[in-house]
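Notes on consecutive records. When two proteins share a document, each keeps its own sequence and its own token line. Never mix them. Below: protein one.
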Amino acid sequence: MAIIVNVDVMMAKRKMSLNELSAKVDLTLSNLSILKTGKAKAIRFSTLEAICIALDCQPGDILEFVADKE
């Protein structure tokens, strides 16, 4: 099973740069980059909420579940 992080997709749809999102969400560029590339192991609900507010989207627009093929 895999959780896919689509922050980069939503950023592109909103025409927002990583620097701009970092400032709006109050996250460091490195932490936001880890999340964006899907290397994060966890995300706080407060961070998810801030990203959703900044990108005007729902959590389901950012996080996606893809089942492993058997």
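Protein two starts on the next line and is unrelated to protein one.
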Amino acid sequence: MVLGVFLGLVLSCLLLLSLWRQSSQRRTLPPGPTPLPIIGNILQVDLKNISKSLRDLSKVYGPVFTLYLGRKPAVVLHGYEAVKEAMIDHGEEFAGRGSFPVADKIGQGFGIVFSSGKIWKEMRRFSLMTLRNFGMGKRSIEDRVQEEACCLVEELRKTNGSPCDPTFILGCGPCNVICSIVFQNRFDYKDKEFLNFMDILNENVEILSSPWLQICNNFPSIIDYLPGKHRKLLKNFTFLKDYFLAKVKEHQESLDVNNPRDFIDCFLIKMEQEKNNPKTEFICENLVFSSSDLFAAGTETTSTTLRYSLLLLLKHPGVTAKVQKEIDQVIGRHRSPCMQDRSHMPYTDAVLHEIQRYIDLLPTSLPHAVTCDIKFRNYLIPKGTTVIASLSSVLHDDKEFPNPEKFDPGHFLDENDRFKKSDYFFPFSTGKRICVGEGLARMELFLFLTTILQNFNLKSPVDPKDLDITPVANGFVSVPPEFQICFIPI
């Protein structure tokens, strides 16, 4: 009896403390829905379609509002003006990485994607410099992508025009490009090691985009105690960590400091140069996780975009025909597409931009955090507060893109059918945290898709009108539904 009363008092005190902390925090933060103790506003958010929930809440609370996903507040930025003002005008202050507990469990703040502060700045600067030195945006990387596009076409020919699920094949191309940059070699599409690697990457994206992972990230205490998909994700992360650690050891044994072969070699040389600096960030942990980050980010986002691209092109055969006509006029059938062609292909360029706008691949990007106390739009946001930038609200802005829910390449064409840029085009995020591999991704999308359409007509086994293009998951990444496609040689 006494024990029960005591426990009741303790729980009541904890509840009151939680309410008091939330109340004191809310006085300086932007307005938002009233949170419940412990769970916050989680019941007011559709974890299968977070973007829609944020849009609905913004209609009530404005473009900058506070949401409690669990006990901690997150400031939401909705619409172009709010996202630009924070991420670009105050880029340095909003450049922190918000909490992502499932990833932090393995990565512990190392690498590029989930790091902050000095580690992030050093790893990002080094990665950008190394990618440029290996030709990102230059001829040498373009050669690799063109070569891989030809390999992809040969693999597609083996389907003999029969219906197939393109998920695996479309993942192989971007994966091999990253392989050649990070550890110098590409894999045969039938290689067992490669097949296992691709399966893990695909599985990780599906799990990361599931509602369960949103719950784990907002209630991290359950990660260690409850079963669920997060266990498989942690196991996969551990496998990737060990895989890259083995690659690093192989490189250490064959390293020639005068002839770096790839990203790992360049990092090892930098580690040797910095070995007497006790404050250096160039340590083995950052090498392993930076390599893994480049691999995961450079493979899955591009392959998912390619897969969604083909689904949209099947759904809109008239658009596909116009792209193929432009390919015939500018490139022809007897040479491979190159990046110089893009400036002469306004319709194709507009289609690629519209695909990325329409699919809204990363609806809320990854969470940011403010790096210091900052006054933003008359609200005081304390250092470390999580910030969620709704990229969906920018890419689907109805003033910039009339009928944003409609797939229309005309969104990126002027009245003379010339390509038209848009300041609202944020598929790779924006500001200090914009995707490191943006240039490589844009190159791959253009070269892979134009090479496929140069060599094949696309045919759907079902009527295009019956194709479902609604994403099956819309959490971390917008995942397209499974579909079948026939690649008919031209």
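For the record: The chain is about 50% helix and 10% strand.
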